[in-house]
Write the structure tokens for this entry.
Amino acid sequence: MLKHRIRSLSFISILVAASVVLSACAQGGALNGTPAAESKVITVVGQGEAKGVPDQARVNVGVDVFEPEVTQAVEKNEATIKTIMEALAGLGIAAEDIQTSNYSLYAEQKYGDQGAEGISGYRVSNQVSVTIRDIERVSEVLEAVISAGANNIYGVEFTVSDPAALESQAREAAMQDARQRAEELAGLEGLNVGDIILISESINQVGPLYRYGMGGGAEAPAAAAPSISPGQVSVTSQVQVSYQLK
């Protein structure tokens, strides 16, 4: 009886060991890349663009003041910015469409033959970003802020407030471009394009950017705003797509 139980246990042990060996062999075959057919993949980059008419503009307005005393520089800058804010409010620009984008205060050194000779004065620069939701009024806004004391206009950028429709058009064009590229490359090797495995995308909106220089001096004379054309806004999409090949 005991011998029979020992033989039975030995037989079960052999079966378990055989199962483990078979499982290891199966895993080893998969890890070693020996399936019946290997998967072929192609990865391409597609480009797409859509253009539209801008419906808003962003203007960066600056006030640069230099005075011998720091208090004078700060007070003069603040007074000018306040006048500009009042001018913008008078044109109906909402407070939420005006944002301080940069503020700096620093001492300027005076230099002579022997090097630095001390502080010559203090420069205060204040820059605000203004969103103009009626692009027909861009020139009017520029003229108003210049008359109010702005001596730097860092740029006028035209954008689309809701770019979703243009993004969709650009995305569709990019996917079509990617598919065409993949089919051309696969065809060179006698293969066909199958299902999509992976997609990644980046979107960019580019509008006309105009720079209007005024010399940057604290006492720059008032100047009439230029005539500015909004042109078109371009939205681009770039996709990276991986396809199966068959």
User: Anything to note?
Assistant: Residues 1-36, 215-222 have pLDDT under 50 and may be disordered.
